[in-house]
Each structure stands twice: as structure tokens, then as C-alpha cells.
């Protein structure tokens, strides 16, 4: 057999990796981090030039399937890890065949849930993680994706203006349908509840769960959060024909939740006295798309919301509310956002993403202003933040480690 | 525990011209191990998911026991999908790993412990209940995962290609384990596979599907000996049954001068030719040049036996005047005196070991 590497982006350095060695036995010198925990499959993080890639050893057909699935999810703009390639035709030194490898790019500034729980946490972290996961699940289900293995282990979290954004990491069990049945959605929720309860109980048993939250309550909350969001996004609304403002109101509410409405169905009853509206096609990322259009900045949804608010404040403070929005946005970018994020010393830039730092500086300014009893200029707040707050933060650009604490149950028998 | 009934159950996806599962009728007995098998796209997984509540049922109904579950949500059906990527948690004891999900269902502590202990006894895990999964062997870990499904004591176990991730050797071991465990538990089980060998070795009964339509549901033995149609005849058995078109003559069918007797009444409506099926092991070498002429391409020697892979000439079909052409042919012969590659041999079916099918409908003729 010949080694066959299929990648979206060609990087000859891939050829230098020790493909003829079972992934489990790769020398430490090739690894970007030492493996932690036990995963269902062998997974390793490897430094490739300036980037870090994750390599998972699985059967060839499963590797191809998951690679194609991750590519589909990216096309659908679902937050997920970026597939990098598949390696086939591996053999060991004696010519025995080895399993294929699926390669994904490491998601910068992402945090496995275990890393979050090993830091000292704000008490509502568990709640914010559930919010992020519920949103991810709603987005997946809107696209017709049945996950089949919803869990904290199969998700990565990125800070998003004080909240979290969830990214799908493992699509091995997933299936893409044109539409999901209620049974399929409920089944995913069932799986989520059991897996999350198990994962949090395991953290508890390992002494990592300082948070006093009850694993079962936290796990159950995903269901409620999911349903609230799902109903808000897809539910029908009925009102009197005279109350047409409620159409605008519904769209505004969905925008606030971060969704754009691409298609809305409206129907009247026979007498024409009542109107029923149902959002048909909705797209997450309302704020991040708007910010991207105005400034070219590609950031998380909540970060975008925060930045847009600051942009509005900037327009008001400079008395330019009636100017072309894109021009004001450009000035805000070059006068405020870029100077602030560029002023962060190089050695501290791997602590947090630029947009998250900007968000934190805004928070910091708010607290400073409150203490001082008057407005503090943003560059003063920035100086104080960089001097007192940021250096105490952990490095989060590349938190690695096989994070699933799962064990193989079916892949090996003695 | 309960029976399961598919009653004209139909699933048609929006936009598809044909149903993916078309009026499926199967009655599964209490405690039975039923295997749904068929080629990719035959509707076997869809059928299982209809039973699980994951696919909407567009027509007909599904019953568990006497209860119509057609419109119930998955968790109200009292079924358990086994082997859904069960993870074991390293810091929790084996007992907690098996029982924690019951807590979500609101089962009290004493009852959880009782069920876990019962399951551990069946799975030979009793001495390990208070240990961590790390201390277990791979096989024991797998049994813990099975335990997670068992403690739920569902009415029905559902398994969708649970062995597809395993290599060939592990698949054989695990399939034996699953089958023997199911027999000890006596829980009604529906199992989906594309592998007919898996289906034949595990199931009390096997249901073969093709294009959404049930072809036959029978015990493995009956399925092998009495395939209901040409599709089942070709799908069940490895190597596959030989199938060829042959002319009908007085008192039977004609194989190049060798008459295979078939009851006259069975052939009344069959037309001028029929499809004849013979399993590779049901053939013997002819002493003369009557019988099916086969040119040997490959001889696979297995010691006691040898398999011959060759090409058979089909007889000119007098009815239509067209030559039906050559077909691939497989025969098992005595391993001590196998023919040689390139040789032309003549084969006859052993008396009573032929299957006759209507050439038009493909349905079995006679018993």
C-alpha cells in the first residue's frame, strides 16, 4: 500500500510525520502537548510549522465520512473544527496495515470543558456552557444535522464577550438530513442530558467540580434552554390582523437572539381576522455578520454585539449618527478598536483573543468609571487593564490535551 | 418484556417518489432476537428508527406489546438503543458507570443498586463493581457499557450495526457475546446489519429487506433452505447460490440434456423457462457430458473441500430463440481430486437440492 494524504491545504511537512508508527507510540518530540486522559480513539496534537493539528486514528471509512461531514458543516457555517485532511494507506515497518488518520486544525483560543473547570470559575460557568451548547444544538438541528453524541467532551468553547461560544469537535456519529423529526431532536437531547450528567459526575468524583452545581440539574437544564430557544426561533405566532407591528417585533426579537430571518411565512385564517407567522429560514450570526460587513472583523456573536454597541456609542459621542454607517465604522476601527488591540504587548497577546481583550477593556473601563464617579477614557482603562489584569490571565491561545475522559468500550476486547 | 408489531408501517421521505419502508408487517415474539438485514438503502435502519421513534411513521402503526407507540416520543417507548457510543468515566466506580443514568430517570438509590447488582451478576462483573474502569480489561469495559443498557430494563433492545467499527476478528467474538447475553436476558431485541453472515448466526429469525419491501422473514435455516424469491436466494449464503435461466421440459427442467425433476403442477403457470438455483455445496461432478458445462477459472483449495469458480454456459432458450449467455458459477467439490484451472467440467445438482423460481416474478415455485 502507498501512503495517500488528502488535504484541503497542502503542507509538505505532513510527509515528515511518522505515519508508519501507531499514533499511540508517536515520539514525544513530534507532539505539541502530552496526551491527557483516555479517549475512545487515539488522538494526538502535533505542531506543524506554525500551526497545531489534531490527529485521530480511526478506520478509513469512518475517517472519510467524518472528514466529508466536517466539510459540509463548515459550508453550512456551523461552528465546528476545521477539517484538514485524511491519511490513508499507512503501514508499519513490517508492512502491516495501520488505521487511517483524520486531521483537523486546532481551534485557537478554544477551551475544553475540563480546562475551564480546572480554573477557578465564576459560579455561573456551568450555566453559560449550557447556553452555548444549547445554541449550537439549535443551529445544528436547524440545518438538519443529528449529532448522535452530544457531550461536553465533543465540544470546544471559546470566550465570547463574557459568555461562551460552542464549537462541534466530533462529527463521527452525525447524520445530515433535509429536516429532523421531533424524535431525532429529542433523542439528541436525551443523549446530551445523559452524557453531560456523566461528565460532570466524573469531574465531581475526580475532585474537579468546585462549583456547587448539581450535575443532574445542570444536565437537565440543557433541555429547557434548548426548547426555549427552539420555540423562539421556529415557533408560530398568531395575532389579530390589525397588529401588524408584531411581524416587525418578531424579527427584532430574533435579531436580538442573534438570528437573521431569511424567510417568514405569513398566513391568514378564512375570515382574514387573524394572521399566523412562522419563521421558515433563520440564520444564526446576525451581529457577527453585520460587524463583518461594516469592519471586516470576524469575531464571536456576543463580541460582535459588544463591539457594535461601542460603535454606536462612538457615533453618538462624535455626533455622527446621521453619517453613513460604514464610514463611521471605518473611523471607529482605525481610531478605537485597532489602537486598543494593538497596544497590548506582544507577550500578552496569547492570553486572550483581541476581540475578547477589547470586551474586557470595556468592562474594565465601566468598573473604573463607576469607582471614579466619571467617565474614564478608553486608553486610560487599557493601560490599567494591561498593567493589572491581563498579566494574571492564563495563556489560552493553545490549550491542548486530549480532553475526552472516555475509555474505549467497544473498540477492543481481550 | 414485550412483543413488537410492525403493522403496515410505512415511511416516505418528503420529495422521494417511493417509500423508504413500504407497508412493513412483522410480528416479533416476546424475547425473540430478530435481525433486519439487506443491502444499503433497503430500509432496515429506517425500520429500526421508526420503532425507536426517530423517524416519523407516515402510514400503518407500530406496537410494543399491546401499546400503539406510533406517535410516542422516543423516551416514552421503553426501548433502549444499545452501544450508542457509550463512554466510561474514569473517576467513577464501575457501579456508578452502570447506574448513573437511572438517576436521571428518577429511580431511587436502593433500586439503582439492586438493578446494578443484578446486571453485574449476569455480566460477571460483581467483583469489580467498586473498582474504577481503568482496572478492567477491554472485554470487561465493554460489558460495563452493555450494563448501562441492561439496568434500564427496557422492553426492547435496539442495535443498529453495533459491530461496524470492529475488525473482522473482534466482530466474530462480540457477536457471540451479544447473542449469548440476549439469550440469558430474554429481552426482545431488534438488530440491524448489512452482513448476512451476522444475521444468520445471531438471529432467531431474519427479515430480509430490499427497496423498502420485506422479502422474507424466517428462521435462518428456513431462509437458507427455502428462499422465497430470487433476491433472497442470492443474498443469503456465502458463497452465493448459483442462479441461471433454464428451459422447462416434460417432467422438469432441462440442464443440457440432464432433466431435473420438478412437479408438473408447480410448472403449470411458469411459462417456457424458469430460474434455477443451486447452492455450491449441492452440486456433484457428472460422469459424462450431461449437466451444466462449466469452464474452471479459479480453484480455491480449503483442504477437505475445494471451491471452483468458473463460467457456466446457459442453454439456448428455445422459447425465445435467444442465448441467455454465460453466467459465473461456483461449486464445492472434493478437495482431494479437484479439477484444474481451464478444464471443462459437467455438474449436476444433487437430487432434491434445487430451487426453482418464476423467471418473470422471481417468486419461488413449489416447496
UniProtKB/TrEMBL annotation, chain A:
Coiled coil: none annotated. Residues 229-390 form the DUF4032 domain. GO terms for molecular function: kinase activity. Keywords: Kinase, Transferase. SUPFAM superfamilies: Protein kinase-like (PK-like) (SSF56112). InterPro entries: DUF4032, Kinase-like_dom_sf. Pfam families: DUF4032, Kdo. This is Lipopolysaccharide kinase.
From TrEMBL, chain B:
GO terms for biological process: carbohydrate transport. Signal peptide: none annotated. CDD domains: ABC_MalK_N (cd03301). Residues 4-236 form the ABC transporter domain. One of its GO terms (cellular component) is ATP-binding cassette (ABC) transporter complex, substrate-binding subunit-containing. Gene3D superfamilies: 2.40.50.100, Nucleic acid-binding proteins, P-loop containing nucleotide triphosphate hydrolases. The keyword Ligase does not apply. Transmembrane segments: none annotated. The keyword Plastid does not apply. It comes from the Bacteria. Keywords: ATP-binding, Nucleotide-binding, Transport. GO terms for molecular function: ABC-type transporter activity; ATP binding; ATP hydrolysis activity. PANTHER family: MALTODEXTRIN IMPORT ATP-BINDING PROTEIN MSMX, OSMOPROTECTIVE COMPOUNDS UPTAKE ATP-BINDING PROTEIN GGTA. This is Sugar ABC transporter ATP-binding protein.
